[in-house]
Amino acid sequence: MESCLYTGQVGHQRLSPIGNAFRYSLFFLYLDLAELETVFANRWLWSVEKSNWASFRRSDHFRPESLPLDRAVRDEVERQLGGRPRGPIRLLTHLRYLGYCFNPISIYYCFAEDGQTLDAFLIEIHNTPWGEEYLRAFAARTDHRDGDWYRYRLDKEFHVSPFMPMDIVYDWRFTAPGEQLAVHMTNNRQGAEVFSASLQLRRQPLTGGNLAGALLRWPFMTAKVIAAIYWQALRLKWKGVPFYTHPEQLDIRKGRYSR
Hints:
Blueprint: E1 4-14, E2 20-32, E3 46-48, E4 54-56, H1 69-81, E5 89-93, E6 96-97, E7 105-111, E8 118-126, E9 133-139, E10 145-146, E11 149-155, E12 169-174, E13 180-189, E14 192-205, H2 208-217, H3 221-239, E15 256-258
Parallel strand pairs: 3-4
Antiparallel strand pairs: 1-2, 1-14, 2-5, 4-6, 5-7, 7-8, 8-9, 9-15, 10-11, 11-12, 12-13, 13-14
Pfam family, one: DUF1365
InterPro entries: DUF1365
Protein name: DUF1365 domain-containing protein
């Protein structure tokens, strides 16, 4: 089975115009979409498309929901990059816990037919409180390699935080999933770094003990995510960080933005 748990930490650091930093522990599921029908077989508290303590729901990802998720991902990557992934699609994400799900970011790792060679990344971003979705694909080519990282620079296209303006250049970095998995993003404005975010995760097999341990340590994972977002927003407001109104129109050149 390729599906597994990833546990570790997420950290944010704001450098300008006012400093703010935090780090939280968390876990993700890493799901091979071809394994969804069997991945939680005989797991009392985990299920797919059924109510449970932890549940994977197609409706929490990739609108509209009319297509199977696997096909929707392949279609979107082909639309953006011109090539269609032929191998497994594996998703790093949060599930729905006690009926609630919010994913600031989910990442689809698209593999070649050998199941080992990365072909593309597709990031799925949701914002709050607007409930909007943004999809951006990146080709996993050798010319994007920087050591262990796949690295991409692009202009900001999607309004995520009301405490960050739109005139931002992103520097995204991803490692291939393995015993460890990392994601790092830097925001640059007018040539200076103003913000960074990172995920540092370690793989754990999907054993009964590991699944039970994850729920014991983080029983309300997605509620913790949304509570942390609003708590940090309140801290930024107290500190006097400028507030940026959601733009009424966005110039989306390569990604897809939908309400």
